[in-house]
Design a protein that fits this description.
elongated, 318 residues, 2 domains, four-stranded antiparallel sheet, alpha+beta, Aminopeptidase, Alpha-Beta Plaits
């Protein structure tokens, strides 16, 4: 029987910031191999493997979450019965729970179970895209995606718009600033207008939010900056196009906008609990399983399915 807390601690203790997931992928692969799964490590990008574990039957129902975390790594610790550490909630605790759940199902005679753990969820979702292209994706009918939703079913997923703003200046010595033009000053003015912009709202998803996550520029304090950039992530409650239009109106021609990714928001649907060979029929009180459309919080559709990419921000309801 799996010691769920011990497994979660072991997973948290392995650093796996986005871009450096290989160590935890190997740990999970070895653990699942010891449990008797057929385990495949397949690269979503060089040196960044996804983990897919199956039984001797096609994976009709798949439990899935992600291997990577945001920085910085912090090791596991337990205080007052609560597990702390990077990924304890998002999503290594979930991963441990999914492995334990799959083992309980197998012990009850349920086969056709799969486990899929992907890289790069916190950044560009290259892991989910690689999974989507895997030959076994079409075997999956149901995929339950693990994300922190306070133990409630997700009813929607905000979209995401990632971009970089770049400004150019003229370098000069800071003793003679009139000979130059600061790219940092220009960027700060643009960002001020972006922050003051009025963004769309939605009764389900709430407000569009803008996070200025990275600001960089210049070379040293005594040189007027020749270039500057800011990396932004906008959580969308509408399609990307109206937000792009508002952003471009705020920026005007003062900065270059490099759009990196754009994923629209999604509303989720529900259906009854699935039946599959070896399982007991769902009771009338069973809670539904959430599904989404492509690029949302991942599903395997009722027709021959595929793994879908997703964005992490969800709205939830009881």
């Amino acid at each position: 029987m799996i010691d769920l807390v011990s497994l979660a601690c072991d997973l948290v203790d392995v650093p796996s910031v986005s871009g450096a997931e290989a160590q935890v992928a190997r740990f999970v692969a070895s653990y699942l191999t010891d449990l008797g799964y057929r385990v495949e490590l397949f690269d979503a990008a060089p040196g960044r493997p996804n983990v897919l574990a199956t039984t001797d039957r096609p994976p009709r129902i798949v439990l899935s979450t992600h291997l990577d975390t945001v920085p910085p790594h912090t090791p596991a610790r337990i205080e007052d019965g609560v597990l702390y550490g990077r990924g304890a909630c998002d999503a290594k605790g979930i991963m441990a729970a999914q492995i334990a759940a799959a083992e309980r199902l197998r012990a009850e005679g349920v086969d056709g179970i799969g486990l899929l753990f992907v890289v790069d969820e916190e950044m560009g979702s290259v892991g989910a895209r690689a999974a989507n292209a895997h030959s076994l994706a079409r075997e999956c009918r149901w995929l339950i995606d693990g994300e922190p939703t306070e133990n409630r079913l997700a009813t929607g997923s905000k979209g995401s718009l990632r971009l970089t703003l770049r400004t150019a200046g003229v370098p000069a010595h800071s003793a003679y600033p009139e000979h130059g033009r600061s790219a940092i000053d220009a960027l700060l003015e643009v960002l001020g207008d972006v922050r003051r912009a009025t963004w769309p709202t939605d009764p389900v998803f709430g407000e569009t939010t803008v996070n200025i996550g990275v600001i960089a520029g210049g070379t040293r304090p005594n040189v007027v900056a020749a270039d500057a950039r800011a990396d932004l992530q906008i959580r969308l409650v509408t399609e990307p196009s109206p937000v792009k239009a508002l952003l471009e109106r705020a920026v005007r021609d003062r900065a270059r906008i490099d759009y990196l990714t754009a994923v629209p928001p999604l509303r989720l649907t529900t259906c009854g609990s699935p039946r599959f060979p070896g399982s007991r029929p769902a009771s009338s009180g069973s809670r539904p399983i959430s599904l989404t459309s492509p690029t949302g919080a991942r599903r395997c559709c009722s027709a021959p399915g595929r793994f879908w990419t997703r964005t992490p921000h969800t709205s939830a309801s009881p």
